[in-house]
Structures are given as structure tokens and as C-alpha cells.
Design goal:
Layout (H helix, E strand, L loop, with lengths): L1 H20 L2 E9 L2 H6 L4 E7 L4 E8 L5 E6 L9 H4 L8 E5 L5 H8 L6 E5 L8 E8 L6 E15 L20
Antiparallel strand pairs: 1-2, 1-8, 2-3, 3-4, 4-5, 5-6, 6-7, 7-8
């Protein structure tokens, strides 16, 4: 019995170490599913995330048809000043909490989704190809500093961007020398 438990523990440890190595960069685009969401993101959003055996890690949020993006980082519920379950709509199944970075257009995204807020968070549902996605936008309340729900965004899956093989951070050279003219 002890030997069996040791074997199981070793297998789980190997899986935990291998999981980051098995992560794959995915990029999914979504269109607004309702008028309320369209009011916030007219042409939809695109999300870059790492998908592995046990879940996902969002990297960046892009405006699908504009030059705007925001980097996000996993966040702890303690940052919110209130339990996440109390902030989300009743019956919400979203649970992946991310802080929107203040750099690049992150602060502009926070202000667009949560007027008056200077800090923002996004709560994601699960990314699945060909399925809808719900994202809750939270922002800090200027009066209390605690997080508040600003918007619940509902999306319809639009498509997946196919990523080049190899390291996506290394640009792929053109297949032939550039034309000097």
C-alpha cells in the first residue's frame, strides 16, 4: 500500500512539473452576445491565454478590431475588499480573477468598463472553443476603495487564431528575402 501511494505521489509530482511545459498559447476572439456587451466592446474582444491540462492562464486582452490591449495578472480575492461571490451576479460560474495592469491601455480599459475606477479586475468563465464566454468587470469604488461589479459581458465565440509552431515570441522570418524596391 505504501508503495502504491508513493507511485501515485510521484506521478502527481511529475504531472505538476510537466503541466507548464504542456501549456499551449491559444488566442480566441469573441463577438458581443447582447446589446449591453456591445455598448462596452463594440466589435468584441480577443483573449490570449495559456491552456494546460488543468486550466488556463490569461495573458492579454485585445480589442478585436482596434489597436488596444491590456495585460492581466492572476489576482487574489483579498485585493477586492469583499468576497468575490458577493460581487458577482447571482448564479455566476465565473471564478478566474485577474487584475488589469495599469500599463499600456489597461487603465483606459478599466475606465471604459468601470467609470470612476482607477483599478480594475476581470473575472473569466472557462475558455472553450465554439462556446460562449462570460467576463465580469470589477472596479474599485472611489468612495470606499472596495471592488464593485461594473459590467457583466457576454460573448459568442467567433474563432481561434492559429499560432505559429515554435516559440511565439520569436518572429517568423519571411519565406524569401524582402524585395529591396
Amino acid at each position: 500500500m505504501l508503495r502504491k501511494n508513493a507511485l501515485i505521489a510521484t506521478a502527481l509530482a511529475a504531472l505538476a512539473v510537466a503541466t507548464p511545459a504542456l501549456a499551449a498559447l491559444k488566442v480566441y476572439s469573441y463577438d458581443p452576445a447582447d446589446a449591453a456587451t456591445k455598448g462596452y466592446v463594440d466589435n468584441g474582444l480577443t483573449f490570449a491565454f495559456d491552456k494546460n491540462l488543468v486550466g488556463f492562464r490569461v495573458r492579454e486582452v485585445f480589442a478585436t478590431q482596434a489597436k488596444a490591449s491590456a495585460l492581466v495578472d492572476p489576482a487574489d480575492e483579498k485585493e477586492l475588499g469583499a468576497p468575490l461571490a458577493r460581487l458577482l451576479p447571482s448564479g455566476a460560474i465565473e471564478h478566474a480573477l485577474y487584475r488589469v495592469r495599469d500599463e499600456e491601455q489597461g487603465l483606459a480599459m478599466v475606465k471604459a468598463l468601470c467609470p470612476g475606477s482607477s483599478h480594475g479586475w476581470l473575472v473569466f468563465g472557462t475558455f472553450r472553443a465554439r462556446e460562449g464566454l462570460t467576463v465580469d468587470a470589477l472596479g474599485d469604488d472611489p468612495a470606499t476603495g472596495k471592488a464593485r461589479l461594473c459590467a457583466t459581458l457576454k460573448f459568442i465565440f467567433h474563432g481561434e487564431w492559429i499560432m505559429p509552431r515554435g516559440d511565439p515570441t520569436i518572429p517568423t522570418p519571411p519565406p524569401y528575402p524582402p524585395n529591396p524596391f
